[in-house]
Specification:
36% helix, 4-stranded mixed beta sheet, 305 residues, homodimer, 10 helices, 14 strands, alpha/beta
Chain lengths: 305, 305
């Protein structure tokens, strides 16, 4: 059975201090699927685009073995477009425009044969769409969800219901603080865990990530990157690598989930090293495993005598 | 031969959302020496106080085996006093007052027999005082220095000379950025390493610490603390635990310096868990080793099959 990925497929116009691109392939489901494609198959992408979505992008996704049966292509519709500009400090960005297009009326339909997929990753879309998907999939599926500050602020009730239902919530540190109105990240994590998920991952950008399980915490280091060319999709690549590894191994022990966090971090570190999706186009498992070992070396210490 | 510690000995008035204290024992040399006292002996503290410095504090330090031969007590002088108030977010604090007192004319004199100490820790004092100490100690001593944003902004030339001369510089992330005018911490670290020190430690508070050596990086996790009662002295306790462990083991390999970073982090995690120096008064090596193992568990992951 496959890995089901639901999220946005978009055309991104991005400007950083280093480069600029228009109508590039983007969206959460895109980054997630590309990242996951290095670990596992089959990947079922559920999303929506307009007929302005180029064949070239379809081919790029299909060449990565991503099954697009669930990608709705709306005749005469416009693909979701996002424009953003990063500051010199790449942690800061301005959203220049958001044109929802066909995404505004997106009604995710999970094809019959994919409703039994045991691994479901809900990319960052409106929580009511995430709930809609959860209602269509197998009750025993291992479900992971990403979200963002916008939904924490504007769709809190639906988001709380999602968090209650999923197995893993992935958010970043500022979102965890916003969600709990708590500045101490460890207390914030405890409060979120009390809302329902079995595991919580808090991404901290240049400071790595924290994984919380029942009475267990794992601190993943960040890969020391001197040059970040484009942070777009870093969180989605993390989620894709994380879930791709779990789907491939089928092992849901805490030990293996820790490894999945490192694999997610490894893929994200490749993603941000190039512009747009380019960092995810030509990877291979050898490179990813090498980086996994670099993460290990980074964090390793022994007790001594 | 002993561990030489130079820094401030002060009377602190501190207010946090949880407690308030006046004229408590404080100062960088105090926190450093107490932290180091759990690891090694003898510890030679070099500092200055007025005759208003209470006998009780002298006894507390001596009970921790700290040699105060090098602590000048100035008749009729006033001990350095610092007052600070922490916000609800403990990362923010206001300095309410700074009364230098006898510290204004502090002229560190290293007693003859301690000039051959092979481990020297320069607490956060004016870089010209740090240079003064460096000129008095053995050229082959292993020297570690702490500093702060004030000296980066007001005594840059002297500070650069200190950084050039010492073996290890310990600073926090915002100081590393300020020092290099560089937002990427990895580039900032490289630039600082180019200034001369063999090792660089960047403390990141709740995000742990980074240790940089020649072509090597180590990422230390932070202990997941739900309750921080008083951040005062956290950085100094880190430096004290770090240097105390190195002095005790005498092993300056990168592997052992990594362990020292974890021991420093462990002691700092005890320091902030109680008010003022209370977290450093009644520790024992068993507790510290237990916490070391918790750090190890926090960061440990394996490659799997």
């Amino acid at each position: 059975m496959g890995l089901l990925i639901v999220g946005s497929v978009a055309l991104d116009s991005v400007e950083t201090p280093f480069d600029k691109i228009e109508d590039a392939l983007g969206g959460s489901a895109t980054y997630i699927s590309l990242a996951a494609s290095y670990f596992t198959a089959p990947i079922h992408l559920i999303g929506v685009v307009g007929d302005d979505f180029s064949k070239e992008y379809i081919e790029l996704l299909e060449n990565h073995g991503i099954d697009l049966t669930g990608l709705q292509i709306i005749e005469g519709g416009k693909t979701f477009r996002w424009g953003g500009k990063y500051h010199y400090d790449l942690n800061m960005r301005d959203t220049l425009f958001t044109e929802l297009g066909v995404f505004e009326t997106f009604d995710p339909q999970i094809p019959e044969k994919e409703r039994n997929d045991r691994f479901v990753l809900l990319g960052n879309i409106h929580p009511s769409l995430q709930l809609n998907v959860l209602s269509q999939v197998n009750d025993n599926a291992f479900t992971v969800c990403d979200t963002m500050n916008l939904w924490i602020e504007t769709a809190r009730e639906e988001l709380d219901e999602v968090v209650k239902q999923v197995n893993v919530l992935i958010i970043n540190d500022s979102e965890a603080r916003l969600m709990t109105n708590e500045s101490n990240l460890i207390i914030a994590a405890r409060k979120i865990m009390e809302m329902g998920p079995k595991y919580l991952i808090i991404k901290k950008g240049e400071h790595g990530a924290l994984l919380f399980g029942e009475d267990q915490v794992f601190s993943a280091p960040a890969y020391p990157l001197e040059h970040i060319f484009d942070p777009t999709g870093a969180g989605d690549s993390f989620a894709g690598g994380f879930m791709g590894y779990l789907h491939n191994t089928g092992d849901l022990s805490f030990e293996n989930i820790k490894r999945a966090v490192i694999y997610g971090s490894a893929v994200a570190s490749f993603c941000v090293g190039k512009f747009s999706v380019k960092g995810l186009e030509d990877l291979d498992m050898l490179q990813i495993k090498d980086r996994f070992r670099e993460f290990k070396k980074l964090a390793l210490f022994n007790e001594g005598d």
